[in-house]
Structure formats: structure tokens, C-alpha cells
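INTERNAL AUDIT FORM
Audit reference: QA-55
Scope: verify that the stored structure record matches its stored sequence.
Auditor: D.O.
Record contents follow.
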Amino acid sequence: MSKAVFLNFPTHGCINSLLATARELVNRGEKIIYFCTEEFRNKIEQTGAEFRLYGGKVNDFLINDFDLFKALKLNLEMTLDKLDHNLEIIRAEEPDYIIHDSICTWGKHIASILNVPAVNLMHSFPVTRSSISFNSETAGLLFKVGLYKMQNKLTKVNLQKLLTKKYGIDISLSDILVNKEKLNIVYTSHHMEPTIFQKSKTYKFVGPSLFFKNEETDFPFEILKGKKVVYISLGTLLQDKSKLYEKCIKAFLNSEFYLVISTGVEKDLKKFQNLPDNFLIRQYVPQQQLLYHVDIFITHAGMNSVNESICSGVPMILIPHTYEQKLIANRVENLGLGIAGSINKITSNDLLNYTNQLIGNADYKIQALKYKTIFSEEEKESHLKAADEIIEYINNQLQ
């Protein structure tokens, strides 16, 4: 039996797909110490792992308007904070290896400081130099990367230099975007795998991983019977989604569709008052169960949500917020499973027209049911494959 410390960036999207693997490792006799925030204690303890509360700043990671420069700076700030408050605690655990997610930069570097092997579990596509080519879509991204590098050099308090001085680590931009290790497990089907990763031996596409398929819920599924249901969920990382919600509400106000909207961390629900009876608004819904009652899913194209939608056979309207979500959205569209739109350009009319197009064209549903079968079969074994890869790799490293 080996001991692993699991480190996560504390958001639902970063954690949900990893939990089945954590449970499988526990079932195989591995001792798993899982660090996260209090919000995720119950989820993590369901895996059988031992929960540990992060020291330091806890919930200072909210991004109101997704901006790459702010996100990169925030990741460095969190890495410094997590090293300052957790490194010695983790050292005292004497782990044999570290498991971290793909934006948990402190996980990668705690492993390097402790000189133990590490595995990177990826809830989204890897964003690497080879996956970014210069075009009209990526020009803005590459400009912000350049701006970040320039401003970081000019600032008096250079976080990268501070981390090097205090901990002897050199954090590159690719660390912040991917945190690549010698073993990187990606939780989606090989059918979603971009061509550029198919020859890489370090990226293992094991299949989708769904952990909360049978959670108890009081959701009123009976009211959805006989209705054409459109479900809207725009993710948890981007906090201010007001404009997008307004477009969605306007699109379906006088329509034949029944709308279920999951607002996530959005606490100001006043904007949703006085809506017609064909709207159901909740901060949280049991998404995996709900999708089996849904005709169309409007999503931010996060990998977890896309996997869940495909496993449920539901066509999608995809409104990606970030570059890797654009990659995912484009792949979904190429597979004939949905329609991708621009977060800055999509209109209420577009949303309604896309919905009618997805429902009116039987090919989308045929494709959705085809890939539902494929993804569902892969999902049954994804956590087993991930655990196999991890244990084989770690055993080789520890010999």
C-alpha cells in the first residue's frame, strides 16, 4: 500500500471527474489524503479518502469576468499561498506520490519540492504550445499571454521570482495552463481526443468519469413530463453570467419550451423573479439525473458537462468561455452533437433558432444516441483504467 496526497483547485469542475478515481484507489488499498476546501468535504469523504482542509486563503478564487491575465496572476497567488500554509503539513504526511489536477500548480511543485512522483488528472483538454496555432480566434489569447509576461517582468512584486526565491521553483506559463507530468490522465473519450495528442505517450484518454449518477434529490422531475425541456447551466468558474442569463431568458419567454436554469453560485436571484410558469430556476440541480429528462442542453462547454450530456444522449448549444472550452465545443460540433456559438456574439434569436434547429433535425439526436452508447460504455471503466495507469506508473517510479 502506498500513500498519496490528492491536491485540487477548489471548483466543482476541477473535482467531480476525479472522485471516482480517488475511490478506486482507496478500494485497491492506497491511502489517499485529500486536501481541499470545506465546501467539498462531503463529496471527498464519499470516496473513502481522508479529508484535509487547506490552510491559508480559502475562497478567494472567484473570477467575475474571465480574463487570462487575471487568471494567471490568481493562480500564482494561490500557489504561493498554498505553499506557505500547506507545504510543511504535506511534508509531514510523507506521501509516496502526489496527484493533482491540471490547474493546481501548487500540486505539481509540492511534488517537485518533496522529490516524489506526481500524476496530473485533467478535467479538460490540455492547452499546450502545440495545440495553439495563430489565427483570429487565438490572437487575443496569445496577446494576453504576451501582456502577462511583460507586465510580470515590470511589476515590483514578481510572484514567479518570489516563488523561486522562497521555494527554489521555476514556474513556467505552461505550468499554470497545464501542469504537465510524465503521466497525464484526461477524462473524456478518445473520440474527443485532438489529433495532436494521439501520438503522445504521456496523455491517456481514459473516458468520461461520472461520480454522482445516483445522488438523492428532491428535484420535481414529474413536472417535466410531456414538455420540451431546455436546460441551461453556464458553469461555476465564471461568476458574472448576468448578460448570458438575460439572453437565455429573453430567447424563451414566449416559447413552447420549458426552461430549467441552474444558477450555480449566483446568489442574487431577484433577476429571475416574475418569470412565466415555463421557467424553473434553482441554484443547484442534480445535473446527471436531470439530463435524462432534457431535450436540449445550453452549456459553457466544460468537459464534465459535455461528457454528462453525451452520456445522456442530449444535443447541445455550446457557449464556451475559455480557449480549451472552445476546443471542446468545436469537437462536439464536428461530431454532429451540437452547435457552438460565441459568448460575445450569440443573441437571444440565435439561442431560440439553434434550439429549433437541434430539435427539428433528427440527425443531431441520431448522433447523440450513437455517442451515448460509446461514452456510456467507456464511462463504466474510466476510473479502472485511470487507477491502472496511476498504480503502474507509481510502482515503476518507486522501484
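Auditor finding: record pair retrieved intact. Residues 292 and 312 are 6 Å apart (CA to CA).
Action required: none
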